[in-house]
Structures are given as structure tokens and as C-alpha cells.
Specification:
The complex is a heterodimer of chains A (264) and B (436). Chain A has helices spanning 11-16, 28-33, 35-50, 67-72, 75-91, 102-111, 124-133, 165-172, 209-218, 230-242, 254-262, and strands spanning 2-5, 23-26, 55-56, 96-99, 120-123, 148-151, 177-178, 224-227, 250-253. Chain A has 264 residues and is of the alpha/beta class. Chain A starts with a strand and ends with a helix. Helices cover 63% and strands 1% of the residues of chain B. The N and C termini of chain B lie far apart (99 Å). At the A-B interface, strand 1, helix 2, helix 3, helix 4 and helix 5 of A face helix 9, helix 13, helix 17, helix 18 and helix 19 of B.
Chain lengths: 264, 436
Amino acid sequence: MATKNIHVRTMLELNAEGKKAEYLFWVGSAGSYDDRAKKITRAFVKILESCNIDYAVLGQEETDSGDSAKRAGNEFLFQMQAMQNIEIMNSYEVKKIITCDPHDFNTIKNEYPELGGNYEILHHTQFINNLILQGKLKINDKVFSGNNITYHDPCYLGRGNGEYNAPRNVLKTLNCNIVEMERNKSRALCCGAGGAQMFKEAEKGNMEVFELRTIDALAVNPNIIATSCPFCMTMLTDGVKLKNKENEIRVLDIAEIIAESLGI
Amino acid sequence: MYKQIAFIIITIITLSIFLYSVSIIYKNIKLLKKAYPIKDHIKRLKMLLEIGIGQNKIMRFPLIGFLHALVFWGFLVILIGSLEMLIDGFLGTEKILAFLGTIYNILMALGDISAYVIGILIIVFLFRRFFLHIKRFSGIEMNHKNHVDASFALSLILLLMVSLALMNISYLKSSDEIVGQYPISKLVANVFSSSKQNMHVLYEISWWTHILLIFFFANYLPYSKHFHVFMSLPNVYLSRLTPYTQMTNMEAVTKEVKIMLDPNLAYANTNSNEPLEIARFGMKDIEDGTWKMYLDSLTCTQCGRCTSVCPANQTGKLLSPRKIVKNFRERITEKSKGLRKDAKFDDGKSLFKDYISAEELWACTTCNACVQECPVNIDHPSIILEMRRYIFMEESAAPSLLNSMSTNIENNGAPWQYPPSDRLKWAENLTININD
């Protein structure tokens, strides 16, 4: 098996060559800096490359979407961030965006338009699902065959924006057993990280939210907990460690599962 | 004739009291901020049919939800009978809608069945409330008064149904010519063996009891959590159509941010009469809130579905979404009297701190499980987030880690302390396996 180096191109580079990309891959702050989330970013880029998708990133021209600042109550900072991002995206005439982050997905999709940023944005689970449906992504159903996979719905993708099926449809192609937690889809319990909780200590209580959600997941005996959000990833990984199950259960993003199944 | 005059006088008194209550609500709405324009009436109508009439959100708790739906649908049918009683009372007629023929028979039959079904269900609900330990009926925000209010409202409905059933039974036993169908009362009537005259007296008594109970109920509701009987349908119709996790963008902030990013704008706009100053960022007290928050608070019947699914509440945190909504109504009830007289009225208290603590507000994960579960589309996080805005932007009193996060975003464009130059580091040494 041969390997090939991937050079991820930026919009700036393409622009210098007088070119444009069809898709902007919005990496987001978590996907750019969080060590665990960076693996998701890399896995997704491999999928984009293997399907020859015409994409580019903003690189250093990308700045935080402002989602967490907004939910912490700092509307000034949110709008500053949003307007900077919108200005740069509009300058590159960005039309279509893909992102692995449901929080940025929600913010760009719902909160940017009023501020002048109108784009067609897809969450990576939707994009991967489309690739499969269009026959552009040939799934290898051997690698995960027979695995028990439970899928945790990120609030900002599921309840927030109504996308419950795309991630499940992707998993269904893998010949694995999808075991649903008792609370799933619109009833799914939050991982505990949304609304800027990711960046603060939890308030006083008798348990952390991520522990309760991990208990939900462990109850259905999965060997993989799948999710599609960098924050959920952090919380559930912590939860699995807390319950000393990290040797038996892997917490993986849908993009990582697909990349791994393809052996790319 | 005397009956008619008495009825008209009582109705006018009842209506006057009710209109007074409604006028207070209207004046209170005027004290509040705008929320969003009400457009897309087709979508709203669809929502009203599905969530309101169809009761599909309450049925997310299938058994008890279905029982509630039965009560609601029965109530709608009985409402037609009540309207008829109102007209009869005014005009001194009897069963004026009888000209509807078969439709009338069906309506009366359904109403009769509903009276018994609702009556029995209310007894079940009361039993449940008193003897089964339903977790969501309790909570830090639920006090003795709230439990009395709930039981009193249920008891009133039970009395309404009993009087309606008695009315039907005695009507069947005292009338020579029976109009309409009353299937269950017909069965029950067999048990009664009283003279026609006595039965006529019973009919008059139950007719008056029923209509007076309705009048009392209507005027009790605006001061009860059971006001949801009136508010639910309008509240669903007027609820937010945007995705649950979409937050509003503050217009006042947009103006300022645009000026910050392009200082020329500040001079360009000096001629406009628009005031750039706004009273306050976010919500400290009710007058910073919107009419929708008020409507939500009037609609809440304290069922506790929101709190029962709240991740913060389930893990022992102080936050209870039901409390947030309940507090809004309590505070506006307390403060609006002064505010209606003087827009600058200040009693030294506020919704934030005196009713809702920072600890509660910071426990919310904005997961929107509460909104998803609310059978009448109450939007709890909008209140929480508006108050966080106040804490952050006016009091600069956010948790210190959130301040650090903000500083990091301001300085490096990321919530962590990494330089912007590292943003593309994830792409270094990235390789892909090629299957040949």
C-alpha cells in the first residue's frame, strides 16, 4: 500500500492562482487546536481527498465562529467574530461550506445570514451521507462488520437542526449493529458541553452531565460510541475513562469510522 | 324573565372582570420589548393544528399525554354546549342549537360522553397527584400554594363535569320532548327514580351550577397556573419558528460592531434620529424581557416535563427550567403594578438575583431538551441566555473561565491560548493511504 502526502490548500493560495474551490471546509477552533478533534479533522480531509472533492480551508484567516462567546452572553465578541469571518468568506465568494462542528454549523447556518453571511452549509455527516448516496464514496463494510455501535446525537445537530438520520444512514452502510440508547434522537441527553459549558467548570451538582450520558451509552453494551461533534467527543471520551472502559470501548467520530473502514 | 335578567347581569359582571384581567395582561405586554414579527401564518396554522389541536408534543409521554389529549378534545366539544347555554341564558330559549339536527345529536352525544370521560380522568389525575409520587410534580420551585392551585383547578373541572352530567340526566328525566342524544346519561338516568318535578328542579340547579362554575373558572384562571386553558393555543401559534439552537442577534450590538469595524460609519450616521443608546444589554428584570417570555410564563401549567429532561437538573444542579419561567410570571405580577403607573418604577428588586441566581443560569447547556419537551412551545433558554447577556455585558460577572475564553478569542481568535499561526498545524505531515 502506498501513501501520498496531502497538501491542504487555503483559499488564499487558490486565490493567488486565480482559482476557487467548490467547498470551504470550515475547520473551527476545536478542529484546529484540540488534539482529539484534530484527528477528526484529519480523518475528514482524507475522505475529501479520497473522493477528489474540490475544497479549501481558510487556514490562518479563519477565526473563532463566536458560538461559545455568544452563549456565554458576550454578544459583542460574537458579532465581531462573525463579521470578520463573513467578510473573509464573502471576499472569497464562498458559496458552500462543510464543517465537522455542529456548533459552528448552527451558528453559520442560522446566525450568520442576518449579519450578511449567506451560505449553503452541510455538516460532515450530511456530506458523507450524500457522497455515499451519489456513489462517490465506496464503503468497505468489512472493517466494522459485527461491531456494536451506539450513536450519540449532538444537541446542535439533532434537536437544534433536526439532523438525526444522516449519521445513522452512514453507519448503516457498515454492516454493524446500531444499538440505540434509550434516550436517542430528539430525546437524546446532552453531553454537557454546549452553551459554553465546554470552557467552564460545571456548576455544583451530584454528577457531571457527561457521566450520566456515558451511563446511558454503557447500558447498551457498545464497543464503539460514535458521535459527530468535537465537544461531545471530549465529554464522552472523559466519561468512558471515568468508567474505566477505555480499553473496551472506543469513542469515534463518524468521519474517523469511515476513514478507518476505508483504510485511508 | 327573571331568570333571563339575572343571567344577563351575572354574565356582564363575569365578562367585565374577565376583560379587566385581560386588559392588565395587555398593559403588561406593552411594558415589554418586541420579540419577533409574526409572519408565515400557514406554518403557524400547521403548528397550531399539530401541537395544539393534535396534541402531538404532549404525547411524547404517551399514556398520560393521550389522557390529557382526551380531556382537551372533550373540552372542545363541551365548549360548544357551553356556548349554547350562554345563548339560551341570554335569549331565554332552550337548546337553541337544536336546529342543527343530526349534527346537534352528535355534538350532544360526544359532549355527554366527554363529561363522563373527563370526570373519570380528573379523578385519576387527582389520585395521581395525591397518592402516586410523580417526580416532576415536585421541585425547589413548587410550593404549597402551587399544589393547592393545581388541585383546586382539577376539582373545579370535576365539579363542572358532575354538574354537566347531572344536567343531562335530569333533562332526560324531566322533559317530555328530548332534543339531542345523551347516551351515557341515558344509562345512568335509569338509576334515578324521582318525580318529574324534582328532576326539573335538579335540572335548573345543575344548569345554574354549571354556568356559574364556568363563570367562576374563567375568572379564576388568569390568576392560576391553569391559565394554560386559554393561553396554550395562542402561545403555540405565536411561538418561534427558527431552529431551537438559533439565538437572536442583538441589533443594537450589530450597529456598534459595524462602527467599530468601520469607523467611517459613525460619522455617516450622525444625522439619523435613531437613538444609538439602548437601555440595557440583556435582561436584568422583566421590563428587559419580551412579550413572548411573558406569554410563555402565562402559558406554563407547571407540568415539569422541561425540568424532568434537563441535563443540569438531572445531575443535581440548581437549574430547573420550570422555575425560570415561573419566576418570570411571579416577578411581573409583583412589579407590573408599579410599572404600569411609572415606567421607571423600581422596587429595589430584580428578576436576576432576587428570583433567579447566576448559578442557575450558568448551569444551562442550551441543549434545548426543555423546549423540545414543552407541550405548548415555551422557550426557556431565551430567558436564560438573555440574562447571561446581562451578566456578561453589563455586570462583567461571568465565571472567570468564560472571561479567559473571551479574552483568548479576542486576542488569538480561538477559545484557547494558541496563536493564530498554529491554526493549520493539524494539516502538517498528513498522508493518505492509496489502495492500488
